[in-house]
Design a protein that fits this description.
5 helices; ten-stranded antiparallel β-sheet; 348 residues; alpha+beta; single chain
């Protein structure tokens, strides 16, 4: 994920933008060959969820900066409290010294008790100095206490602002993710209905992003986690796993790994909704367990072009993309897709 440069107005502006996104009504659902209906809605919500996640992460990073400021302020407050305690101790010592030195005696009594005018003047200077020290200490103490109160209020305000901002970002993110999940399962239900009927809904035409790939081959999905690999065993397969599984959520755009022609679009059997593409050189790639297809049989596709959206149709225990590389269009001629892609410069 690309990092976002922080700006003083960045988070508030994006909060407003996200609020508009969260409040915007869903796009109208059309038929499979029209506006794209729920498939387009899922793609749109993926984009909004991605934006919300980026802004949440930007807010989280800003919160960490704010947290550091607040912690520094707390350390400053601790020093100020210590300084005030020291001032109070100084005041106590000055008051006790004045009491011991007769600072509280009336001026007439000091005249009667003095042995000489010089002694009286020295005593007066000592009293004046003590009074000045007391006044200075009191003034410093009051200023320190006022500064402490202001800093404590500033620290409390900073923490409240931090909590409020991160809470708003998290709430917007949760709202978009909830709408995305609902749209994903609506898409999957439509796919399950098509598979049960044995009839594909037809290609869903989506507004695809400008790819501009300079390399001839890419991974079948942009962001993923690898799960079951080629040749692995398990109860779900008759012998060995014939492809590479990519753990992705329902509705994730699935890309053709290279240019070619669509030779098969099917909606039944163990693979559920699937697409098979023939590439120059005679190899075939299969994309299975889809929730929707975005291409028709016989159509030419470019590198990175969306051929469908991932799902969990057919013999599938959860949302993922089953990807195969074959020597023929039929099952039984698979080769290791990771090695095949690695030979073409794509590391999974």
């Amino acid at each position: 994920m690309r990092s976002l440069r922080r700006h003083p107005l960045f988070v508030p502006a994006l909060l407003c933008a996200l609020a508009v996104l969260a409040a915007r009504p869903p796009a109208a659902t059309g038929d499979a060959n029209g506006s794209g209906g729920v498939s387009a809605e899922v793609v749109r919500l993926y984009e909004e969820a991605s934006l919300a996640t980026q802004q949440y992460e930007a807010g989280r990073r800003e919160a960490e900066v704010q947290r550091g400021r607040a912690q520094r302020l707390e350390r400053l407050l601790a020093r100020e409290r210590q300084a005030i305690a020291t001032l109070h101790g100084d005041l106590g010592r000055i008051a006790r010294a004045q009491y011991r030195n007769g600072g509280g005696l009336p001026h007439t009594a000091q005249l009667l008790l003095a042995d000489s005018p010089e002694e009286l003047m020295r005593g007066q200077r000592a009293v004046w100095q003590a009074d000045l020290a007391v006044n200075n200490a009191v003034t410093k103490s009051r200023r320190a206490e006022a500064r402490l109160a202001a800093d404590e209020e500033k620290a409390a305000s900073a923490w409240q602002s931090l909590e409020r901002r991160t809470g708003e970002l998290a709430e917007i993110k949760r709202g978009i993710e909830q709408k995305l999940e609902e749209a994903q399962w609506t898409l999957q239900n439509q796919a399950d209905t098509s598979v049960a009927a044995g009839a594909c809904r037809g290609a869903v035409r989506l507004d695809q992003p400008r790819t501009g790939f300079t390399q001839p081959w890419v991974a079948p999905v942009e962001t993923y986690g690898l799960s079951a690999g080629f040749g692995s065993g398990g109860e779900r397969w008759a012998s060995r796993h014939t492809g590479q599984d990519f753990a992705v959520a329902i509705g994730t755009p699935v890309r053709s790994v290279g240019e070619g022609r669509v030779v098969k679009v099917s909606c039944g059997g163990a693979f559920g909704i699937e697409v098979v593409v023939r590439h120059p050189g005679g190899y075939y790639t299969q994309y299975a367990h889809l929730a929707a297809v975005t291409v028709e049989q016989g159509e030419r596709v470019a590198t990175g072009q969306w051929v469908g959206q991932s799902g969990t149709t057919g013999n599938s225990t959860g949302p993922h993309l089953h990807f195969e590389v074959r020597l023929t269009p039929q099952l039984g001629s698979a080769v290791d897709p990771r090695e095949w892609l690695a030979e073409r410069g794509v590391q999974l």
